[in-house]
Design a protein that fits this description.
- The complex is a heterodimer of chains A (about 350) and B (about 260).
- Chain A is mostly helical and about 350 residues long.
- Chain A has one domain: ABC transporter involved in vitamin B12 uptake, BtuC (Orthogonal Bundle), CATH 1.10.3470.
- Chain A contains 14 helices and 2 strands; from the N terminus they run H-H-H-H-H-E-E-H-H-H-H-H-H-H-H-H.
- Chain B is α/β, with parallel strands linked by helices and about 260 residues long.
- Chain B has a 6-stranded mixed sheet, with helices on both faces. A 4-stranded antiparallel sheet of chain B has the order 2-1-4-5, covered by helices on one side. Chain B has a two-stranded antiparallel sheet with strand order 11-12.
- Classes of the chains: A mainly alpha (about 350), B alpha/beta (about 260).
């Protein structure tokens, strides 16, 4: 290409390095995918897995892989992607490396909506699952609107710092409301809600995949198309305005997209925290801070993280399970502490 | 000829107006410098001019059209802004940060075109950053970093440059380098430059036009000879200044000063 002749060698090298990292992450997802397919109460060898995937397994193998494991694995990857990209956007628009859907109260808002629904319509099997992401999105959206409205000031717009602080306060408020609500749940529903809050991939069938997939497929490419805007928003409001970004409008649109992703993901996975925080952090460590690379890398690290967490959660205490959210926290917390020790002021 | 007109502008933050009813015009193709004591509203005025702050009344006109009604991207193609304190996110190289200056000219995913590369490489060259091109911005000294931001504003390729204290963090030689660069851009390419400077002598030496402000109002506007007078400096800064002539530019400069003894 003609343009490439203007690139210096080291620019070309860093571009190749970034694409290489993205390739490696894809490969890792495939590897963990195979391991995960092989993990569970009934063990299948990698060969049997491959045979079954290509259509020549026994009926039982087929059932296990296609009806139980595959949808769950796909959901784990999609949820991880959604949360990580959502965190990436939130960190970008708030100019704060600590922002993620959990901290901003968006997960809690989605959780509250799901919980209200469950406590009033207790039988989850009877409701169309397509409703859950919409429900979670509504909860997340209302929370986001409240946070946005409370941190908005005329003539000044949104201050990123106010956005974070309001989010933290709202999250705390909603969490306490949820605790009050759990008191009036039946033991069965309480069990479901408790697991849900801990972040477990409870909806593991194709219906859930289908209800989550459109959100991911539409919103992640949309956010990717805004990579340049996120780049300049990162430079601060003054610089971004000077460069001609309509910061208020872009922020609103990006916030809505992030809320959509987080809401849809959380509705199926429950409150998996940390992924929205650590996914983008890992991505920036790997590929620098340009969002053209950070967004796809964050999506892949997020997907990989939740997939690994879910696999470990299913394997470690067989035949019972640990929610993926807890495993993510166990892996994520030490990594996060490690990050904090490395931050220079 | 006027390129920017500030017309009865009132601007400030939520509950406090910093600038009330200020009118002044910025001549095209000249260097205009705003001076005044801390908190006099220089930066606030600059933010109003650069549409970062909305005016509460009055308006800023760019070639006769109200700036808030223009597409922000269109304004960005004509006017670049260097804010007072800018932070680069970690992990960016000099080239990458300067390339962000092309934002208003790009569409879609932002692949850099030949023209973009030319602007970026030129901006890096004139700010003397060629050898740092592929270095991380974080690893640079304060002065080098300041030049990277200037390079980003230059890469934007605009006819108007607005700079809020472009020489802070720079040592004496680098301060002069930046000002000479701005002077060259003005003389050779006819760019309009509006800036805030703290150093009165630099302001006098490099400006065609000076605006002195105090408490959000305009005290005096005009050529360095008109603004850099004992009387005016006394009323703006409350100092007793001794003036002389710059041996290089023949403009009036302040040799030394003491605090005003008299009460106001």
């Amino acid at each position: 290409m003609k343009e490439q002749t203007y690139m210096t060698n080291s620019q070309r090298k860093s571009m190749r390095k970034n694409l290489f990292i993205i390739g490696i992450l894809c490969l890792l997802i495939v590897i963990v995918f195979m391991i995960s397919m092989n993990t569970g109460f009934i063990r299948l060898s990698p060969l049997e897995v491959i045979q079954t995937l290509f259509g020549s397994g026994t009926e039982k193998q087929h059932l296990i892989l296609f009806e139980f494991r595959l949808p769950r694995i796909i959901i784990a990857v999609l949820v991880g992607m959604g949360l990580a990209v959502s965190g990436c956007v939130l960190q970008g628009i708030s100019q704060n490396a600590l922002a993620d859907p959990g901290i901003l109260g968006i997960n809690a808002g989605a959780g509250l909506a799901v919980m209200l629904f469950i406590s009033f319509f207790p039988s989850t099997t009877a409701v169309p699952v397509f409703l859950l992401p919409i429900l979670a999105f509504t909860g997340a959206g209302i929370t986001a609107i409240i946070i946005y409205a409370l941190s908005y000031k005329r003539n000044e717009g949104i201050s990123p710092m106010r956005l974070i602080l309001t989010g933290v306060a709202i999250a705390a408020g909603i969490s306490s409301a949820m605790i009050v609500l759990t008191l009036r749940l039946s033991p069965d529903n309480y069990q479901f809600v408790a697991t849900w809050l801990a972040g477990s991939i409870w909806g593991s069938n194709w219906k859930f995949v289908l209800s989550l997939l459109p959100w991911i497929v539409v919103l992640i490419p949309f956010i990717f198309s805004k990579a340049r805007v996120l780049n300049v928003l990162n430079l601060g409001d003054l610089t971004a305005t000077g460069l001609g970004a309509s910061i208020e409008k872009e922020r609103r649109v990006l916030l809505a997209a992030a809320v959509g992703l987080a809401g849809a993901s959380v509705s199926i996975s429950g409150g998996i925290g940390f992924v929205g925080l650590i996914g983008p952090h890992l991505a920036r460590q790997l590929v620098g801070s340009r969002h053209q690379y950070v967004i796809p890398t964050a999506a892949l690290t997020g997907g990989l993280l939740v997939l690994i967490a879910d696999t470990i959660g299913r394997w470690i205490l067989q035949p019972s399970e640990i929610p993926a959210g807890i495993v993510v926290a166990v892996i994520g917390a030490p990594y996060f502490l490690y990050l904090l020790t490395r931050i220079k002021d | 000829m006027t390129v920017l007109t500030i017309d009865h502008v009132a601007v400030g933050y939520a509950n406090s107006l910093i600038v009330e009813d200020l009118s002044v015009s910025i001549p095209k193709g000249k260097i205009t410098t705003i001076i005044g004591p801390n908190g006099c509203g220089k930066s606030t005025l600059l933010k109003a001019i650069s549409r970062v702050l909305k005016t509460q009344s009055g308006a800023v006109y760019l070639d006769g059209r109200a700036i808030h009604q223009l597409q922000t991207k269109e304004v960005a193609k004509r006017m670049a802004i260097l804010p007072q304190s800018a932070n680069a996110p970690g992990g960016l190289t000099v080239f990458e940060l300067v390339s962000y200056g092309r934002f208003p000219h790009q569409g879609g995913f932002g692949t850099l075109k030949k023209e973009d590369y030319e602007h970026i490489n030129w901006a890096i060259f004139v700010t003397g950053l060629n050898e740092f091109k592929d270095r991380s911005v974080e690893a640079l000294s304060g002065g080098q970093r300041q030049r990277v931001w200037i390079a980003m504003a230059l890469a934007q390729g605009t006819e108007i440059l607005i700079l809020d204290e472009p020489t802070t963090y720079l040592d004496l030689a680098h301060q002069l380098e930046v000002l000479i660069l701005l002077q060259r851009l003005n003389e050779e390419e006819g760019r309009t430059i509006v800036m805030v400077l703290h150093d009165l002598n630099h302001a006098s030496r490099f400006s065609h036009n000076m605006i002195s402000m105090k408490n959000g109002t305009l005290i005096k506007e005009g050529s360095p000879e008109e603004v850099m007078t004992c009387l005016n400096l006394q009323s703006v800064f409350n100092i007793d200044a001794r003036m002389t002539t710059c041996p290089f530019s023949k403009n009036p400069i302040c040799l030394s000063y003491q605090l005003n003894q008299k009460n106001e």
